[in-house]
């Protein structure tokens, strides 16, 4: 075997190992221009749902919540109480914010539990349309299987999930409260989602 061939094979194995250990490192999925998800998240009264409990947290459902959206960005968190409950945030877009032509003209990032965007030059659509058609959501997995599925989600994929918008409190008085509208911005505007089922997939025409 030629030395350069052996090196090439080792490089491939290393890439595969890194991808298996850090699935969030997989490349972003892109698409041809066009809206991929036409409908906004669906929010309904929660119905007769008991309090949920996880470790020291008491979780109160405030609305039933179903979402189909494009993943604009993902961010994992570790080491704080919020991360014990919600290990990942998904920045999500629908309507014009699922359109590659719009996304290509925005710089999108996440930090300290916020989703941030900045236009590359002029705004591709009205600021209000960006704000109404995208959101940062703190995802609380209902079980280990959901947690595993959440941690596999990558930017550019489409996701469908259902569960509840929730408020959380701990025995020492600590609280974390969800937004209940898609029209708000700034502090307190993120949704806190108890996720019972989630599926991620590549949309039509995906470019890898």
SSE diagram, text form:
Layout: H1 3-21, E1 42-44, E2 52-54, E3 57-76, H2 81-85, E4 88-93, H3 100-103, E5 106-111, E6 114-119, H4 127-132, E7 134-141, H5 144-152, E8 158-170, E9 175-176, E10 191-201
Parallel strand pairs: 7-10
Antiparallel strand pairs: 1-3, 2-3, 3-4, 3-8, 4-7, 5-6, 8-9, 8-10
Report on the structure:
The protein is α+β, with helices and mostly antiparallel strands and 208 residues long. It has a single domain (30-201), classed as Beta Barrel (OB fold (Dihydrolipoamide Acetyltransferase, E2P)), CATH 2.40.50. It is 21% helix and 38% strand. The chain contains 5 helices and 10 strands; from the N terminus they run αβββαβαββαβαβββ. The strands form 2 sheets. The protein has a 5-stranded mixed beta barrel. A two-stranded antiparallel sheet has the order 5-6. β2 (52-54) and β3 form a beta hairpin. The longest helix has 19 residues, at 3-21. Mean pLDDT is 89; it is low at 1-26.
The CATH class: Mainly Beta
Low-confidence stretches: 1-26
Element string (H = helix, E = strand): HEEEHEHEEHEHEEE
The CATH H-level homologous superfamily: Nucleic acid-binding proteins
In DSSP terms (H or I, runs of 4 or more residues), the helix count works out at 5
- Strand order in the sheet with the most strands: 3-4-7-10-8
């Amino acid at each position: 075997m030629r030395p350069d061939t052996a090196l090439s094979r080792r490089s491939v194995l290393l890439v595969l190992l890194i991808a298996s250990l850090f699935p969030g490192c997989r490349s972003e999925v892109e698409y041809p221009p066009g809206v991929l998800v036409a409908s906004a998240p669906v929010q309904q009264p929660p119905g007769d749902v008991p309090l949920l409990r996880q470790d020291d947290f008491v979780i109160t459902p405030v609305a039933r919540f179903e979402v189909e959206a494009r993943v604009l960005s993902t961010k994992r968190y570790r080491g704080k109480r919020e991360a014990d409950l919600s290990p990942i945030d998904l920045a999500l877009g629908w309507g014009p914010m699922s359109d590659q032509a719009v996304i290509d003209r925005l710089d999108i990032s996440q930090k300290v539990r916020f989703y941030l965007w900045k236009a590359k030059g002029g705004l591709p659509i009205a600021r209000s349309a960006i704000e109404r058609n995208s959101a940062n959501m703190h995802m609380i997995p209902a079980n280990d299987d959901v947690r595993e599925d959440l941690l596999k989600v990558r930017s550019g994929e489409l996701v469908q999930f259902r569960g509840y918008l929730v408020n959380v409190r701990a025995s020492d008085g600590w609280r974390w409260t969800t937004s209940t509208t898609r029209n708000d911005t700034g502090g307190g505007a993120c949704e806190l989602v108890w996720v019972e089922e989630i599926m991620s997939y590549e949309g039509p025409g995906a470019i890898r």
